[in-house]
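Throughout this review, each integer encodes one residue's backbone shape. One record appears below.

===
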Amino acid sequence: MKKISPLIHHRTSVSLPARAYRKICAARLVFSRNGFFFSDQEVYRWLLKFYLSHWRGDGVKTNGLRRYNVRGKTYEIHPLYINQMLHAAIWQRALHSGESVSRMLDVAIRIYLPRLLEQILGTPRRSKISERNKLFWAARFRRRRHVYQDVFINYYCKTSHNYRGMLEYSQKVCMIPKTGLTPAQIWHLLQNAA
């Protein structure tokens, strides 16, 4: 099997409703007004990580992908450049649940984009954010019932048997919270996780 790396990016595309992409553009504008300049790809990466780390499904594997593009909605194709580790984890999730990557990103934009804004703009950092803005975003963030931590995502796939008509393999995605790690652990995870 081909070795995957978090240091190499996988280039693909997603099909998003025009309204969802407008939300991304609006969020990037709010970030830039407050001194944070993020690309679409960085925002996508955060949102997909949030989506992966907070999915709580425990059902059996689906029998196929669900229909995503609904008639009457305007969809646009946008590039998606994420590292191979995150891409493998997202695809494992897609194959298991029957959700397309485009659908996962669309849902993440609706659910997790406001949380991402609150989390980044409400935490104390050196930036051009005024104290009034920081207090506003921090108050919104505190009102959230569930506070989501940023995580490293690690993906493993191991083939245990591939001989005489039988293929057996296992896939595993590990979510490692970024808080409470030593500098050596962080350095190791930066090289080996998404």
Q: What stands out?
A: The longest strand covers residues 151-163. The mean pLDDT is 80. Strands lie at 9-17, 75-83, 151-163, 166-177. The two ends are 19 Å apart (CA to CA).
